Amino acid sequence: EVQLLESGGGLVQPGGSLRLSCAASGFTFSSYAMNWVRQAPGKGLEWVSSIRNTGGGTYYADSVKGRFTISRDNSKNTLYLQMSSLRADDTAVYYCAKSKPYGTGWYGANDYWGQGTLVTVSS
Amino acid sequence: DIQMTQSPSSLSASVGDRVTITCRASQSITTYLNWYQVGPGKAPKLLIYAASSLQSGVPSRFSGSGSGTDFTLTISSLQPEDFATYYCQQCSSTPITFGQGTRLEIK
Hints:
The structure holds two protein chains of two kinds. Chain A is an all-beta fold.
């Protein structure tokens, strides 16, 4: 059974940093791109960042570029999101999601999601 | 960036109704289009990928169609558990983008 378990969320002051982790199990982690998607309170889904299976390609939304860093440790089956210079508008539930590639694309669809971890940026 | 526009933003319907949600891309994405269902306090659930392929375990009352810029999600006969918010997502190019969502409510 595929499981994705996020951790690391919490309350942080504006300008602060936080590192999210996503522990994966039930599939060959090193074979799939992984992603972070967030949902601010009362808002829609927003793609945040992706990393290819080998870690060789990383991608970011403009809203987080230069402030967030995605990484993975395939030996530990774990995905990370290092967040710095946090702002109030980064407040959201952050989901880790697995990619299901199709066609010639590397991203595909997000077929498995974690339950999310809440990040609150407030003084 | 590819903009995704869903309509309607909200919809009221009854159990047993047939419902259609549309999603339009600002440029052609061929069939790189996915649909998700988000229930209150729940993680998103993949329903349809590649515009028309039903994800494993998803009831057959859900179907998707379209290509290029115009896509639809149809629920053939609404069940109580289907009242949720639905999002389309393009995965043709980064940045990956979602529609703004369609909230499906009980009439």
